[in-house]
Amino acid sequence: MELFPSSVDSSWWMFALPAMLQTGNLSNPLILLFVLTSFSVITFLTWAFSAGGLAWKNGRNHKGSVSIPGPRGLPCFGSLFSLSHGLAHRTLACMASSRAATQLMAFSLGSTPAIVTSDPQIAREILTSPHFADRPIKLSAKSLMFSRAIGFAPNGAYWRLMRRIASTHLFAPRRIAAHEPWRQLGCANMLSGIYDDQSLHGVVYLRKHLQNASLNNIMGTVFGKRYDLMQFNEEAKELQELVIEGFELLGAFNWSDYLPWLNYFYDPFRIKERCCHLVPRVKKLVKQIIEEHRIKKPKNLFDNSDFVDVLLSLEGEEKLEEDDMVAVLWVSACTSCLIINVVSLSLFISVLFL
């Protein structure tokens, strides 16, 4: 009943504008120029009077007793270009210092509103706020099924279910403690490999050893499989390739995350294409592992059981569909992996021995 009047109200200018300008339709170049000019002027005025940039329009950063200061950046682009070169944390520090933003600063990344803080108490409030769960998700994360896992799922019933499963079953203190011997064994094997490598070659490339130890920890904790990664294993190699590719896609800068209209014609890093090729490989491998666990499902569940057995044992309202299980296991594998921190760990160990 309300759809038709709403449509008429929202498009009244399409009929009124030609009449006011004494023309029959909107195809007249002058009319198009007038519309584009009006739109540009409105956009410019909105940007000019919005502290923090266009993404913070309509006074979104003035809802508290004190408004949030921040740079306007450029129309449409915000502060994207300011952060595209140099060290981002230093650029943000300079921006905050120039505007006396001592606790909180608002800025725009294209159409995405962003905030940054260096105050621990404010950071705690942000991270514990229910609105934090509704933050924008990267297109690559959404394509790689991260929106079905606890870290990226939108606030709601499904997110609360995932949080309960994670806190009660997957990351319970007793389960983490039960896997401690395996982590110690993996660390011992890594140190042994580093020693052997140094004895043979005199020079050790730590990244390989750290990646192998991290991957083996994933295989054991999440999938219940451990391998000698110094020997060739097809399944372990496939998982390693998937995790590395997933991290590269998640960490790659994608203009479409901040300027959605670019997604239709500009993708220099082929992120959409690479995600489309990666997801079928992930589903095939993880579903194969789930099926193996179904066949030899244990009668009893122990604290040192892997994530696959834990998810398969869930009953009632906690039971997940297979596609959701695939997403949870895949994201758990990625977030459990320390490949993204391998460079930092390598530098730390190098400094330690200097």
Automatic annotation (TrEMBL):
Residues making up the signal peptide according to the UniProt record: none
Gene Ontology molecular function, alphabetical: heme binding; iron ion binding; monooxygenase activity; oxidoreductase activity, acting on paired donors, with incorporation or reduction of molecular oxygen
Transmembrane spans: 30-56, 327-353
Pfam families found in the cross-reference section: p450
Cofactor(s) required, per the database record: heme
PANTHER family (alphabetical): CYTOCHROME P450 78A7-RELATED, CYTOCHROME P450 FAMILY 78 PROTEIN
UniProt similarity note: Belongs to the cytochrome P450 family.
Protein name: Cytochrome P450
Species for this entry: Salix brachista
Species lineage: Eukaryota, Viridiplantae, Streptophyta, Embryophyta, Tracheophyta
